[in-house]
């Protein structure tokens, strides 16, 4: 083959290669762009494997405080939902009870009362479960946070207190009222006794005590002292005893 023919073949091949490359490029640019798909909730059950907080923190150090705070708040809850209380004559209707380990009038109880809700402390000092022999303790605000226990000090003997928990309704009947000086250890011991107000008496039946502040009475007597939580010197305790239980739906 002559040099002229070889040159013609080379030029022809170059033109063919260029055309193929151009066609391929144009074809690729015409491919449809995938649409963005919005994330949806998984239809299958989530994995039981717990997230590794240390790994999450290592990936994003700026989130370390938030992650650790969430973990602590979920694993060390200060209180939990216990049941509900209704006291018709005091206009208390189906109020949530939050149970916690502590003492009456402490910071945790005050935080619950400010929700507002009804707090139910228990500890080594006492505070049995509803329906048990001893004193089941409830407290709530009277003059703040909506005043859920505003009418409690005016309850009369025989009026009813209803506690609902885990499908059972417990009915207590009011028996008597006590007034406690929280600055007096002797007075406080009587208040927290298994039979409220009767220190030394053996408990033989389930009791309940509804505690709330005596702020209006203290103010009227010129007693302006308040503790760290803003509670006055004196508090009312309405004491009742269990008279019936029945299942509820």
Give a verbal description of the structure.
The protein is built from six helices and eight strands; from the N terminus they run H-H-H-E-E-H-E-E-E-E-H-E-H-E. The protein has 249 residues and is α+β, with helices and mostly antiparallel strands. The chain has a domain of 173 residues: Sortase, Chain: A. An eight-stranded mixed beta sheet has the order 3-2-1-5-6-8-7-4. The protein is globular. About 25% of the residues have low confidence.
Share of helix among residues?
A: 25-40%
Average of the residue pLDDT scores = 78
With strands numbered from the N-terminus, the spatial order across the biggest sheet is 3-2-1-5-6-8-7-4
Please state roughly what percent of the residues sit in beta strands, choosing from under 5%, 5-15%, 15-25%, 25-35%, 35-45% or over 45%. Answer: 25-35%
SSE blueprint and pairings:
Layout: H1 3-29, H2 53-59, H3 64-75, E1 80-87, E2 92-101, H4 107-113, E3 118-122, E4 134-139, E5 160-165, E6 168-181, H5 185-191, E7 206-213, H6 215-220, E8 234-247
Parallel strand pairs: 2-3, 4-7
Antiparallel strand pairs: 1-2, 1-5, 5-6, 6-8, 7-8
Helix pairs in contact: 2-3
Keywords summarizing the entry:
249 residues, alpha+beta, Sortase, Chain: A, 8-stranded mixed beta sheet, 8 strands, 29% strand, globular
